[in-house]
Amino acid sequence: MFEASDFEIFDEQTLAGRMALIRDVIDPKFEQFAEIALPILNQDGQSWFAHIAKHLRRTTYAPDNTWVAFAPNKRGYKMMPHFELGIWADHIYLYLAVEENMKPKQTAPIVSKLTAVSPMIANLPEQFVISQDHMVNQNVPLSAYEATVSRFENVKHSEVLIGIKIMRGDAYLGTSAVTEKLISALKTLLPIYEKLK
Fold this sequence. Notes:
By secondary structure, this protein is α+β, with helices and mostly antiparallel strands. The chain has a single domain (about 5-195), classed as BirA Bifunctional Protein, domain 2 (2-Layer Sandwich). Helices cover about 35% and strands about 20% of the residues. It has 5 helices and 7 strands. The protein has a 7-stranded antiparallel beta sheet. It is globular, with a radius of gyration of 16 Å. The two termini are about 30 Å apart. Belongs to the UPF0637 family. Pfam families: DUF1054. It comes from Leuconostoc carnosum (strain JB16).
């Protein structure tokens, strides 16, 4: 599904050019992944939906990353815990995401839930990482989870995203192993999602 050549879309510097490549090259792969992921997610009794980023507010600069989000809401995903599969110029990621759009009304309940799953986060495999902002290409280790939750509670533009990265240059790109890794991560994160929803 995902190949080494997919990252070359970020070599295109113009907004129009990169958006055309995203739509032609990446979005169909997100749709393919959705066909595999949605039946797994639907097993929890909810109806899940795929939301492919459209980048409609972009008028000047080409997006540095793009993604598809999965949530049990047909109208949107940012206001609830959700899953996000995306690509940057140097990696593909799959995260369980709690984004800043859950603030301010839902901050206290979600912080309590994020705190309660700390032992589950600590038991994740070592390849899992944390992102504190889905729009910034930067990660911290799982050991920073409690600090990340505290930051989410106290800093306006902060988020809690937990998942895996598959780096550009990974030997398994272009094989089914990449999809298998992503699905395995999704299944590993599902019990944590169940505690957060």
